[in-house]
Design a protein that fits this description.
By secondary structure, the protein is of the alpha+beta class. The chain has 3 helices and 3 strands, in the order αααβββ.
């Protein structure tokens, strides 16, 4: 069994294009982990222009991530808001 980790999405070799991610280096960290009552328009807008959005979303689903990934909000790998 292979366990996928964030390094698989963001490898040193950058074979998945992480260097093109719209959120890379974003200083607004709290925007990527909103409370359920908070709007996440900022993160969704950044994701909307991201070329690796589908890979990011798929990674969150496969690995049980929480927060905003690929323009959607996840809780332990389950999409809770689009």
């Amino acid at each position: 069994m292979t366990v996928e980790v964030l390094a698989d999405l963001l490898p040193i070799s950058d074979s998945h294009g992480w260097h093109r991610a719209a959120c890379r280096g974003d200083p607004n960290h709290e925007a990527w982990f909103p409370y359920p009552s908070q709007d996440f328009e900022y993160a969704r807008a950044v994701c909307g222009r991201c070329p690796i959005r589908p890979d990011c979303r798929g990674f969150a689903e496969r690995t049980g991530q929480s927060g905003v990934w690929g323009g959607h909000e996840f809780d332990r790998g389950k999409m809770i808001r689009e």
